[in-house]
Amino acid sequence: MSSYITRKTPGNTEWFRHDRFGMFIHWGLYAMPARHEWVKTLELMPEEHYQRYFERFDPDLYDARDWARRAREAGMKYAVLTAKHHEGFCMFDSQYTDYKCTNTPAGRDLVREYVEAFRAEGLKVGFYYSLIDWHHPHFTIDVHHPRRNDPDARQQNEGRDMRIYAQYMRDQVTELLSNYGKIDILWFDFSYPDAHGEGEQSWLGGKGRNDWESEKLIALARRLQPGIIIDNRADLEQDLWTPEQFQPTEWCRHEETGELCTWETCQTFSGSWGYHRDEQTWKSPEMLIRMLINTVALGGNLLMNVGPTARGYLDDRACAALQVFADWMKYNSRSIYGCTMAEPDLLPACPQDCRFTQSEDGKRLYLHLMAYPFAYLNLPGLADRVEYAQFLHDGSEIILKKGSEQSFIHGSALSADTLILKLPHVKPRVIVPVIELFLK
Ligand code: GLC
After folding, report:
1. Residues 41-62: pLDDT tens digits?
2. What pLDDT is stored for residue 410 in this prediction?
3. Does residue 139 surpass a pLDDT of 70?
């Protein structure tokens, strides 16, 4: 058994740590301007201007079953969809607002189709719910708000009451967690309690748990869906730590207690979360697979984002990127599911440009070859710990030698306890080949 114990939290994180890989979906009106999901505030767009998207939102090619199938084939085991993003637009049929998809040309509850399709493919289902809302009339203007530069921004705030907005969030979370069956994850986003404006705008503040009334909101969610996993972005620690758009280099720990946390890094294919037509910074196939391996090698999960188009399909670039995962996971998922960071006493044996993961039961060690070393790979200290080795993708044997029998390698002096793997000279046609080591 793995000796890594993660901090106990109220949500059921066991399945989550086993499954390791999920799909994030950022979809909303911002798919139409197609130049970042923050476009409304980045361009300080007036409400009337943004309304042009609401009036024309018509995802006629939306087929949630197609998304769900691609997610499953990519090896993803759960998904998280933006039920509402910062723009405030609801992708579900809420009775507390008119600003929802059923009132656009879409005319359908898009969240419901997602839930049904993903569940049918056997994936667990989550909702992202934005705490920020740039449409709600009671959400006060703050540092990130599209109206922050209006000359009368301060006066506009006078009639606004965050308590009304906090109640609105509770009402909507109640809908989301009551009307769609079992929901596995609730992803709130995000808090910025210490943010403030500069100079003349220093009166502009941020928002945190007191504004969201996070305690009440979370208690409500837990009552409606016991076991649900909640992230840490409502300014209250919960089940999940969520490093964003960077690769952690160690297992996330609780700041005060030092305990290991359940963590999930969220990453994009190209930089923005919503569909971005002109973005050219798409990650390479190697980078995608490495992100997944690097994450599991440190005991974390990867939530990989897609931004569907305004017409509701995943564009060819997104499909190609998902296919990269599908091709690799088809043969190598055993080094991901149910795997975690290798035991501390094994870690020093990991060669340069390689990553270990280890099965939870401790019996198998997976060696990922990020750069391909031809001929021999030496693992110090493991000579007597490995019974058998094979490439994971085709189950072909890797011949093992011990440092004590090193005479066949000319000119090197290895310690007797070094395990030597004899590799083919040509890299197998796998982006990152994996060697499965059966431990004694
Ligand atoms: C950020 C952004 C947002 C995105 C999220 C995903 O907090 O505000 O647009 O949804 O990260 O983690």
Report:
1. 999 999 999 999 999 999 999 9
2. 57
3. yes
Residue nearest to atom 4 of ligand 1 (CA): 273
Q: What are phi and psi of 188, to 5 degrees?
A: -80, 145
CA of 189 to the centre of ligand 1 (A): 7
| HSE-up of residue 10 (Cα within 13 Å, Cβ side) | 15
**What average pLDDT does the segment 309-321 reach?**
98
Among residues 165, 264, 162, 166, which one has the least CA distance to residue 215?
A: 166
User: What is the 173 CA–ligand 1 centroid distance (Å)?
Assistant: 19
Q: How many CA atoms lie within 13 A of 120 on its CB side?
A: 13
User: What tokens does 359 get?
Assistant: 């099965």
pTM: 0.97
Whether 231 is in the pocket of ligand 1, judged by its Cβ within 6 Å, is no
% the chain with pLDDT above 90: 95
Distance CA 40, CA 28 (A): 12
Contact of 420 with 378, CB cutoff 8 Å = yes
297 Cα distance to chain centroid: 16
The helices-and-strands tally (H runs, E runs) of the chain is 11, 15
